[in-house]
Design goal:
- With about 425 residues, this protein is of the alpha/beta class.
- It is built from twelve helices and 18 strands.
- α4 runs antiparallel to α5 and α8 packs antiparallel against α9.
- About 45% of the residues are buried.
- The mean pLDDT is about 95.
Amino acid sequence: MHFDYLIIGAGVSGVACARLLQLSGVHRIGILEAFDEPGGLCRTKRIGDHVLDIGGGHFLCTRYPEVYDFIFQHIPKSEFNYFERVSRISIDGVEVDYPLESNIWQLPREQCAEYLISVVQNGEARKLPAPTDFEGWIRWKLGDLVATRYMLPYNRKIWGVEPSEMDIDWLHKIPRLDLREIVMSCLNRQSDRQKMPSHAGFFYPKAGGFQQVFDAILRPVANLVETRNPVSIIEKIPGGLLVNGKYKAKVVINTAPWKSISNSPIFDNPARQAIMALQHNGLVVSLHEQDYSTDAHWAYIPSEKVTQHRNFFIHNFAPHSANSGVYRETNPKRWSGGSGEIFKHSNECAYPIPIRGWATAIRAVLNHCEPLGLFGLGRWGQWQYFNSDVCIKEAMQLCQRLGHSRCCVECTKE
């Protein structure tokens, strides 16, 4: 079988890339998916009267207008509800609006004073040099109290590694703290929603779950997907690449974790060693039934006495789902079960961990592979914690790099 482009993985990155290539006029495209169905982390299941996104929290929000254009050409905007984000942090026995630094004033007065003093004494404000590990950087950026009671335990829970083992070159999205704004929010006892770092509002489908978005993009390219077809071997041959001994392609685009193909002869020893240096974690999503009165869409739980790190109140963003549904996200290292769940799904691969040296490792892999015609795309191919909108944006950029600049234009004309 001969392809111009063969894509490994039928998650949002692979399917969006295939659709963009199709829109640009490419016809010989194939997608190989290891599992029984496409979708990856964007899948939704109906459990009784509950809608459950089994890959964890997924919401449609992007700063890229072209991504909205692409999505709304496949599923009309009218099929979504729009919500102003309400998310909270459970800290010191109090629920505080996110982000914490803008809502310290919601804490009891004495605690507010403690946190405020700690924040204004952070290392950055004192002109100290920035540390090079995540734990040190968080203390330097946010102060010891926010670090100790919120950021460090929360990140220890979600990533499953010590914050001191993590790098800082993935933190560019965190804005510089404006100490004057923090102080003024405490004095005025209110915060400015316009200052929320990201995702101040989001879209969510009026029917089903987030998989509605994925399915709409998949539909035009569904016939290109071969499920139950894991890739294990990639070889360089004249004029392209040979995959699994039978698929020939001019270009292969990998959206799967690199370790799944690390034994391929296409990798030399340094590239293989770089792959083995990459680390990822998993995620258990468990569904529970409980009464709740909160208006929050989700809540962050930094306390290490509590197993999960986030709770999602499904009915608050999916009113077509039963009003008692809550799902929890838990790192598999912390999961024990038996906490009243009526359903649980385990994702073996959830987040690439930004362990120290990760950027050097993935750069070595991509620098080795791209001259051979093997490209990485998305959360796993580029080994970064991309949300689905960024995966689509990265697919657009890769298509342009590969000489298909028309694809992003054509998707807005249909």
